[in-house]
Amino acid sequence: VFRNKLTFFAAAKISSSFPAPEFPEIAFAGRSNVGKSSLLNALTRQWGVVRTSDKPGLTQTINFFTLGSKLHLVDLPGYGFAYAKEEVKEEWEALVKEYVSTRVGLKRVCLLVDTKWGMKPRDHEIIDLMERSQTKYQIVLTKTDLVFPIDVARRAMQIEESLKAKKSAVQPVMMISSKTGAGIRSLRTALANIVRF
Ligand code: GTP
Ligand code: MG
């Protein structure tokens, strides 16, 4: 399915403007600047459809992309240290929370975590929410190129340990670098298996 053409489909600032859930969806969540938009590019090998930036807080709406009119890939705005007003950040966060806990057709949330920094309180908040709404999610460690391999492995083990009791967490933790391409194929295969195209 990831060979299909990626096209922008819709952007939503409020849940009433979410498109009708006609396709299965895979969403990408995580703190600001963790590499969500870059991962979408790397997975689809299509650069330029999803915008990325050095400045945290680029993605300010929930952006829906279609992959060959079969699947929606959903780029969520990051939570955390965006250069934005506090009220605006709270609005995005509420929107993301509403999306992950109520969206029909949502098959999987990839929760991206920066390998160097690990999980933060807001990641745990989202996890608790997904546990309550029984939304299937998996942790994807990003930017592994910036950390020694031993530390990547250590981080993955630490997170797997902390997820043991969680019911909606899909194991194992995957590790990727959108920059070098490490781990991208495995993640692509894992995600394609969810929708089985
Ligand atoms: P928001 O939209 O602000 O929430 O950010 P985002 O999570 O979409 O992050 P984005 O993909 O825009 O990437 C943020 C920055 O991290 C950019 O400067 C990217 O080039 C960089 N980046 C993303 N992935 C990697 C990676 O695997 N390795 C390295 N070294 N840098 C990366
Ligand atoms: Mg982004």
UniProtKB/TrEMBL annotation:
EngB-type G domain location: 22-197
Family of the protein in this entry: Belongs to the TRAFAC class TrmE-Era-EngA-EngB-Septin-like GTPase superfamily. EngB GTPase family.
Protein name, entry field: Methyl- -binding domain-containing 13
Source organism (scientific name): Olea europaea subsp. europaea
Lineage: Eukaryota, Viridiplantae, Streptophyta, Embryophyta, Tracheophyta
Segment of the intact protein contained: 371 to 567 of 570
